[in-house]
Amino acid sequence: MSKCRSFAVVAVCFLLAAPAVAGERHLGLGRAASPAEIAGWDIDVRPDGQGLPVGKGSVRQGEEVYMTRCAACHGEFGESAGRWPQVAGGTGSLSSDDPVKTVGSYFPYLSSAFDYVRHAMPFGDAQSLSNDELYAVVAYVLFLNDIVDEKFVLSRDTFAQVKMPNQAGFYDDDRETAEKPFWNAKPCMKDCKPPVTITGRARVIDVTPDDKAARHGAD
Amino acid sequence: MDDDNESKPIPSRRRFLSGAAGLSGAALVGGAARAENLKNLPPNVPEWTRALGDGVAVRPYGHPSKYEANVIRRDVSWLTASKESSVSFTPLHALDGIITPSGLCFERHHSGIAEIDPEDYRLIIHGLVDKPLIYTLADLKRFPRVNRIYVLECAANSGMEWRGAQLNGCQYTHGMVHCVEYTGVPLRVLLAEAGVKGSAKWLLAEGADAAAMSRSIPLEKALDDCLVATHMNGEMLRPEQGYPARLVVPGWEGNVWVKWLRRLKLGDEPWFAREETSKYTDLMADGRARRFTYVMDAKSVITSPSPQAPVRAKGFTVISGLAWSGRGKVKRVDVSLDGGRNWREARIDGLVLDKACVRFYAETDWNGEELLLQSRAIDETGYVQPTKTELRKIRGANSVYHNNGIQTWLVKRDGEVENVEVS
Q1: Are residues B212 and B325 both part of a single domain?
Q2: Number of domains in chain B
Q3: Which of B25, B73, B130, B150 is most buried (most C-beta within 10 Å)?
Q4: Which residues face B257 on adjacent strands?
Q5: HSE of B350 in the Cβ direction (CA atoms, 13 Å)?
Q6: What is the mean pLDDT of residues B190-215?
Q7: Nearest residue on chain B to A125, judged by CA atoms?
Q8: What region does B127 belong to: left with phi over 0, alpha with psi -120 to 50, or beta?
């Protein structure tokens, strides 16, 4: 520690020697963020509505926003145009061989959809919707999923009324109990199973890129 | 340069995939190695031994040899609707050691690459803190920093393989992984500057890209080993990897390692953002889904031989692969030549680090018989990489994410390798 002479070097030595107490000493770097600076970027919304902006929008207004700003990719009914994500439908499909995850069938909270559209949509023109347009278009996506009726107006006040169908469909990571048998530090090394047979081959359903000839209708 | 194969486009698929020049020697199988040019072989003296080559600084930022031009990230164009929300894969089959070259680290962008002017970079820390702060990049670079090598694996790595063997190449089956050295500021040091309130339990991390990609992270993890990194492999982060600053969340799925980090908000509950509800949740057979499955379990893959790296000669053969665990150090890797019936311990060579890749080797004499190659990783917590069958028994086949099942490669008599599943 004899090298810890200058102020900066002392700080480094101190932090490395006792990382858990790094916070005990302020380095005084950076500056206070102003409320206006924060407000411009503070766009997250939680399930309890914390973070919702002021504004409102009806299903009807949302239809217009949706048709001009969203439908080209997501389809007029949310069914997807081409290979863009489907945002409506899929109800009852989650335990099938072909689960269709959409706002209506899978999203647990309205905030998960609202917050996402606010962050990222329309794709390629993010954060371009006004707050009223945002409320309206999300209301319309709910309508496309039969979650609200055509008279619904979404706002900070009505937000909590919306219950998403799949809210109870999630549970926290339980691998450490549900997959406990995988913690088996002494796995079999010899004659662990009968001689093996091949049960599946990539070639049968070859989707390898750069090998179009061998690909069977992958597009 | 009058001839010959060197300058012609490589025509066949096999050549395309295997890329590099072939081995000389008698027992070539798998054929199709690039032809040698006798003019360059002893007793002749090749051109490069006679003439001057490029001088210094002709290549001010060096590139790999032109003969390695096939060793690149590749995407699967039909997988996604747009290149901006898509993925390209690390060419694992052509790499060795544990460090992934920066330019070959796989990409997963949700709205393309944000090209951030470092002068205009800002990081805001706010929410349940005593003093909301804003940092410039210059501020970040003044903090005490640490160097750590970590693996980053996308939760969707091998996601195409849940239902059965699908993509024929370990670049595509396993290439959403990379392992690099980061230089960064411990996140807890940055947070302490703002003063985290006692009521804070969660951290929201948000990117500055056009998806403003955001994820919730438990405060406990944030204060443990996370970093805000500015450098990878000694140089500033590549734009594709979040220039000028990204979050490093050791052992956890790549999606939470938010790139182009612009905002950290402290809160008392998770946000349930779209990327931790609609995506990055693991749908089980009963239609319910696991959420917050952050940790990447132990996994390994044989990178060579593999479909893009066929065996070219009988005789002494090195089987080589990568293993990692998000729960700690890799303790052991086993290799099987008969589809998991019998196993032997592989040789791990090089660094064995916490939540990083290890490189393993198993040497064998190959006499041209069919092999069913598998590897299985065991980490220091005693977790043993499961078979795909074992995984499906618990999770079904709709999970998309977190497929760490054992991979099988069939080595055929001609040395070609195919992605298969076995009983």
Answers
A1: no
A2: 2
A3: B150
A4: none
A5: 15
A6: 98
A7: B210
A8: left
CATH number for the domain harbouring residue A146: 1.10.760.10
Question: How many residue pairs bridge chain A and chain B with CB atoms within 8 Å of each other?
Answer: 284
What is the per-residue pLDDT for B35? 82
Is residue B29 packed enough to be buried (19+ CB in 10 Å), middle (13-18) or exposed (0-12)?
middle
Task: State the amino acid at position B321 in one-letter form.
Answer: G
Q: Residue B24: which domain range? A: 3-28+297-422
pLDDT at position B417 is 97
Across the interface, whether the CB atoms of A195 and B338 are under 8 A apart is answered yes
* Lowest pLDDT segment from A112-126, B33-47, B57-71, B274-288: B33-47
**Are B274 and A22 an interchain contact pair (Cβ–Cβ within 8 Å)?**
no
A179 to chain B: closest CA residue: B394
pLDDT at B9 over 50: no
Model confidence at A216: pLDDT above 50: no
A194–B421 C-beta distance less than 8 A: no
pLDDT of residue A11: 45
The reported pLDDT for the residue numbered A204 is: 62
Do B268 and B366 belong to one domain?
no
Predicted-complex ipTM score: 0.90
Among A4, A87, A182, A219, which would you mutate to test the B interface (most chain B Cβ atoms within 10 Å of its Cβ)? A182
B78 in contact with chain A, both atoms CB, cutoff 8 A: yes
Question: What does the pLDDT read at residue A5?
Answer: 42
Name the minimum distance, in Å, from the CA of A61 to any CA of chain B. 24
- On whether residue B45 sits in a domain, the answer given is no
B79: tokens are: 């997988």
Interface of A with B in 82-141 (CB under 8 A): 82-85, 94-95, 97, 99, 101, 103, 106-109, 111-113, 115-116, 119-120, 123-124, 126-127
Q: Is residue A45 part of a domain?
A: no
- Give the residue from B260, B290, B320 where a domain finishes: B290
Q: Give yes or no: residues B200 and B337 share one domain.
A: no
> Residue B389: CA atoms inside 13 Å, Cβ hemisphere, count?
9
Q: Average pLDDT of B301-313?
A: 97
CATH code, domain with B228: 3.90.420.10
Domain boundary among B290, B315, B347: B290
Would you say residue A15 lies in a domain? Answer: no
